[in-house]
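ok new one. same drill as before - structure tokens go in, u give me an amino acid for every spot. 273 of them this time. try not to just spam alanines like last time pls lmao
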């Protein structure tokens, strides 16, 4: 699909971003896939190949957190496919373009469904990881988070307990499990952004997984314009004022270039990729 971007759609999208005062990005698995990270759903996805995790995964953790931690430590010792792929992955040109758009003020916030840390590593400042971050741990009671590599886990005392005084909640991986509520702080942030957005840029997401999928709709009902960057059509395509049918690593740098041309005083991109 490279090079298949319709020039008029690119101009419409760039003009909208340059004029918007509060553009929110909803990013999905398509961005990670372009960095070589296997997807979960769809053709060749980990869940499609190996089966989906149980829908009551979070109940399983609540019932027997020790067992969950034993499996996690075993998987870390044995080397899991997803972990290895994420460890080797680098942010791509699409991630860096979003960072530059933020620097220009053409993007105000990124809501990502990806847990791979690539937006953060690229340098995105205003970011909500709605499904968590696989490199972090989180207390299920007070929602405090720690970088996993800075948190000492004693294999003889599982699950590890929250380090905050007076909490003592069980600590789990920050990645949101099936059946687990989205952490309240992430949910609040998404609602706040949806209420402020005057434009929503949908990138590499089929926008069908709830609750992430509802934020563009909330914003759209309030009058926000939608732009889509995706090689495939999605249920939201018809509602978009501009659709760029290309991978994000191709489309977003082109979009950035056009926004820079429309933004007075914008420094040219350093061309990072
Ligand atoms: Zn806690």
């Amino acid at each position: 699909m490279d090079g298949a971007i319709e020039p008029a759609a690119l101009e419409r999208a760039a003009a909208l971003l340059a004029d918007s005062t509060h553009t929110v990005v909803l990013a999905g698995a398509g961005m990670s896939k372009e960095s070589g990270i296997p997807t979960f759903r769809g053709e060749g996805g980990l869940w499609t190949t190996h089966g989906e995790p149980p829908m009551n995964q979070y109940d399983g953790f609540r019932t027997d957190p020790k067992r969950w931690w034993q499996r996690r430590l075993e998987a870390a010792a044995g080397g899991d496919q997803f972990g290895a792929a994420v460890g080797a992955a680098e942010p791509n040109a699409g991630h860096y373009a979003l960072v530059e758009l933020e620097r220009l003020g053409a993007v105000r916030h990124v809501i990502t469904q990806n847990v791979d840390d690539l937006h953060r590593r690229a340098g995105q400042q205003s970011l909500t990881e709605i499904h968590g971050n696989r490199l972090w741990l989180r207390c299920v009671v007070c929602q405090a988070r720690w970088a996993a590599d800075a948190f000492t886990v004693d294999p003889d005392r599982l699950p590890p307990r929250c380090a905050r005084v007076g909490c003592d909640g069980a600590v789990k991986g920050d990645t949101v499990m099936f059946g687990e509520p989205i952490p309240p702080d992430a949910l609040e942030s998404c609602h706040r952004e949806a209420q402020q957005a005057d434009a929503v840029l949908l990138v590499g997401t089929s926008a069908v997984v709830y609750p992430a999928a509802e934020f563009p709709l909330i914003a759209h009902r309030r009058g926000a314009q939608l732009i889509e960057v995706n090689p495939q059509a999605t249920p939201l395509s018809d509602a978009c004022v501009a659709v760029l049918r290309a991978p994000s690593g191709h489309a977003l740098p082109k979009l950035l270039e056009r926004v820079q041309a429309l933004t007075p005083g914008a420094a040219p991109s350093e061309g990072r990729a």
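The chain has two domains: 1-36+91-131+182-273, 38-88+136-173. and btw Residues 248-262 form the longest helix (15 residues).
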